[in-house]
Design a protein that fits this description.
Layout: E1 4-10, E2 14-20, E3 26-33, E4 45-46, H1 48-66, E5 73-80, E6 86-89, E7 99-100, H2 108-118, H3 124-127, H4 136-146, H5 150-155, E8 159-162, H6 164-172, E9 182-184, H7 185-188, E10 194-195, E11 200-201, H8 203-209, E12 218-220, E13 223-228, E14 238-244, H9 245-252, E15 261-265, E16 269-276, E17 287-292, E18 300-307, H10 311-319, H11 330-334, E19 344-346, E20 364-366, H12 374-400, E21 407-410, H13 417-427, E22 431-434, H14 439-452, H15 458-464, E23 467-471, H16 477-494
Helix pairs in contact: 9-14, 10-12, 12-13
């Protein structure tokens, strides 16, 4: 009897395999971190083979930990760090270069060159995305130019491109022995090569970027049976759901109605609002993206604001400054002071993402006096996540014409009570943490389970969602306005640092 659905959650810093029961409860989990490779300032890489080997290990860890076998699983879904770009050899299965991570900024010069010819928004009407180093197209263009005979191999279909979902799915379904070369609509919508209206690779965009069609995966719905796993631990299990990590969290939070939104606090921060079955163009620095597509249904779209550095700022305080020994210490240190002491941190380590899209920005710490201490810096680091979220939400409300009634939150930082209360205060709306905090993996599991009938409908998923804790705003408007004015002043200091 198949009693569970599994989800591979391949993130920026680690890979997990989580097993879920019918109520969305977590049954077992295996997790393993992978290396962050920094060849030059602003360059961020991952080893695709390390990620693949870790995936195999965490699957085995979770199954063994729960005493389960492949026959206990109805299906497996995949969710992944988006935009991270992999190119591999179809015949050998070997990566032809390390993966270029979504945070990587090595294509900034290419971004500038394309923007000079038609502006930063020259492809926005078709892709929903501005020109930025964030997305996959220019990363792929760079890789094909660097890999020996890369363009020729891609034209012949011997060099395959994929985001991490494609790389894992290809390997899971056989690799060099008939592996499926696929990506779902949510991941394809982050490449800057897919047309949002047709949900197909756009020939004009491929020509503009110089990308051969032969190297690209087929685009499929987010919930559909793609094939069966060929690896020993999952032999015969249906692979039936793929969602980019932030869209997966939207599904895991059961945000199926237009106007419902979630924010995920991880390495970065990602706020998505469901906008229904029509893409909503942004005039405020957000991106328009595919939220999900279940089987033959019409696709659902979302507005998204992406913040590059949130949880990574806490890691920076730990690893680079030695201010704390573990990330968990940040809340206690921040609670040693009653407020931020007028200290603000703008963590524009790789530029500013939504809604500013300023690649030339760099991180700053402002407002320092002799009064400031470690606690103020810790508090400013946490508050930076909340301020950046507020900037994105304000843009989202302008674009959608919808005022948010509550914000559903997930990700590693939602255990931080100080941050969650400050987020509610600075937004002036309730912030709600769900009972199952692992919403990214849950969303992938939901997509897979829907495809095989483990869950019958979205209504069943909505019933599964339950609040764990709700934070109500309690800050006065005058204080809120003053803090936000100071934050905007700090933002202005970070701009145009790079000439």
């Amino acid at each position: 009897m198949t009693r569970y659905v599994g989800a591979i959650d391949q993130g920026t810093t680690s890979t997990r395999f989580i097993l879920f029961g019918h109520q969305g409860e977590i049954v077992a989990c295996g997790q393993k971190e992978h290396r962050q490779i920094y060849p030059k300032p602003g360059w961020v890489e991952h080893d695709p083979l390390e990620i693949w080997h870790n995936t195999l290990q965490v699957i085995e860890m979770a199954l063994q930990g729960a005493g389960l076998r492949a026959t206990d699983l109805a299906a497996v879904g995949i969710t992944n760090q988006r935009e991270t770009t992999v190119v591999w050899d179809r015949k050998t299965g070997q990566p032809l270069h390390n993966a270029l991570v979504w945070q990587d900024t090595r294509v900034d010069d290419l971004v500038s060159a394309y923007a000079r010819e038609g502006g930063q928004d020259r492809f926005r009407s078709r892709t929903g995305l501005p020109l930025a180093s964030y997305f996959s197209a220019l990363k792929l263009k760079w890789l094909l130019a660097q890999i020996p005979a890369g363009l020729a191999l891609a034209q012949a279909g011997d060099a395959l491109f994929g985001t991490i979902d494609s790389w894992l799915l290809w390997n899971l379904t056989g690799g060099t022995s008939g592996g499926q070369h696929l990506t779902d609509v949510t991941n394809a919508s982050r490449t800057q090569l897919m047309n949002l209206d047709t949900l197909a690779w756009d020939p004009e965009l491929l020509a503009e970027f110089g990308i051969p069609r032969a190297c690209l995966p087929a685009i499929v719905p987010s919930s559909q049976v793609y094939g069966e796993a060929s690896i020993a631990t999952l032999k015969g299990v249906k692979l039936a759901g793929v969602l980019g990590d932030q869209q997966a969290a939207l599904v895991g939070q059961a945000c199926f109605k237009p106007g419902e939104a979630k924010n995920t606090y991880g390495t970065g921060c990602f706020l998505l609002m469901n906008t229904g079955n029509a893409p909503v163009p942004s005039r405020s620095g957000l991106v328009t993206t595919v939220a999900y597509q279940f089987g033959a249904e019409a696709p659902c779209y979302a507005l998204e604001g992406s913040v590059a550095i949130t949880g990574a700022l806490v890691q920076w305080l730990r690893d680079n400054l030695g201010l704390i020994r573990s990330s968990q210490e940040i809340e206690a240190l921040a609670n040693e002071v009653p407020d931020n002491g007028d200290v603000y941190i703008v963590p524009a380590f790789s530029g500013l993402f939504a809604p500013h899209w300023k690649a030339s920005a760099r991180g700053v710490i402002t407002g320092l006096t002799r009064y400031a201490n470690r606690g103020h810096v810790a508090r400013a680091a946490l508050e930076a996540s909340a301020y950046q979220t507020r900037d994105v939400l304000a843009a989202m409300e302008r674009d959608s014409g919808t005022a948010l009634r509550e914000l559903r939150v997930d990700g590693g930082m939602v255990v931080n009570e100080l941050l969650m209360q400050f987020q509610a205060d600075i937004l002036n709306v309730p912030v709600v943490r769900p009972r199952v905090a692992e919403t990214t993996a849950l969303g992938a599991a939901y997509a897979a389970g829907l495809a095989v009938g483990f869950w019958e409908s979205r209504e069943e998923l909505v019933k599964n969602w339950q609040a764990d804790k709700r934070w109500q705003p309690r800050m006065g408007e005058e204080q809120r306005s003053q803090l936000c004015r100071s934050w905007q002043k700090a933002i202005s200091r970070s701009l145009d640092w790079i000439d």
